[in-house]
């Protein structure tokens, strides 16, 4: 029996409600570890180095990439974000489940490096609802909302490369579906035995 923990990544277009879903899963499963990313963006509000993120300069980040310490990374709104290799591998080897809140490209890169990772794509119920949500935030101009919508239309095309797709219409249903995915993944024969299935 394999004692390894699950690596679960959750991605989706902007405004889809990924942050709220992840918060809820963390609340329900405090034992599920958080992968602390490295970023070049400055801390926001009460954020602390080593808690929400490791805050580093661009030079420091690029050095970590060169040294092979970053499993995957992406640029988001002019800043780098990357997953540190050692803590993720150590946590998984220890049997801890690790949840990664990363971009769509990040999840795809993670899956290429670790085929055993479980990638989940969060879909909006419809583009009309996504537009309502983005407008409802009231934080962005209409022009920016339109840009985000255009980007979301492109991004949902990547859903087919993910292991699972979860529609976020109702928060609790979306969370329940992710919990069901985690439970099912833990019962997979190949995962438990460490042997790839051949028929
Ligand atoms: P925020 O600045 O709001 O905390 O995060 C911005 C975006 O960066 C979010 O979509 C988040 O999922 C993504 N992100 C955070 N850490 C990583 C990471 O290590 N790798 C990648 N690819 N994306 C990340």
Please give a structural write-up.
The structure is a single chain. The chain has helices at 18-28, 58-66, 85-94, 104-113, 127-137, 142-155, 171-186, 189-193, and strands at 7-11, 33-34, 37-39, 53-55, 70-76, 79-84, 98-101, 118-123, 164-167. The chain is an alpha/beta fold and 199 residues long. It folds into 2 domains: 1-32 and 97-189, Rossmann fold, CATH 3.40.50; 35-94, Guanylate Kinase phosphate binding domain (2-Layer Sandwich), CATH 3.30.63. The strands form 2 sheets. The protein has a 5-stranded parallel β-sheet, sandwiched between helices. The radius of gyration is 17 Å and the shape is globular. The mean pLDDT is 94. It binds guanosine-5'-monophosphate. Guanosine-5'-monophosphate binds at residues 37, 41, 72-74, 76, 81-83, 101-103, 106.
Overview features:
Guanylate Kinase phosphate binding domain, four-stranded mixed beta sheet, 199 residues, single chain, alpha/beta, 20% strand, five-stranded parallel beta sheet, Rossmann fold, binds guanosine-5'-monophosphate
């Amino acid at each position: 029996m394999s004692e390894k923990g699950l690596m679960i990544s959750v991605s989706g277009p902007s405004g889809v409600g990924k942050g709220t879903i992840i918060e809820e899963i963390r609340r329900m499963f405090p034992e599920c570890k958080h992968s602390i990313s490295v970023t070049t963006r400055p801390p926001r509000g009460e954020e602390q180095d080593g808690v929400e993120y490791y805050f580093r300069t661009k030079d420091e980040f690029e050095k970590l990439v060169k040294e092979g310490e970053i499993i995957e990374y992406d640029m988001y709104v002019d800043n780098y974000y990357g997953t540190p290799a050692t803590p993720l591998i150590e946590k998984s080897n220890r049997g801890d489940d690790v949840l990664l809140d990363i971009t769509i490209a990040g999840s795809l890169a993670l899956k290429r490096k670790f085929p055993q990772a479980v990638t989940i794509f969060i879909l909006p119920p419809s583009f009309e609802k996504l537009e309502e949500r983005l407008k409802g935030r009231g934080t962005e101009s209409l022009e920016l909302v339109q840009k985000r919508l255009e980007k979301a239309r492109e991004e949902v095309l990547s859903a087919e490369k993910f292991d699972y797709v979860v529609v976020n219409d109702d928060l609790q249903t979306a969370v329940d579906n992710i919990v069901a995915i985690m439970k099912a993944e833990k019962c997979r024969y190949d995962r438990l035995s460490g042997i790839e299935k051949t028929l």
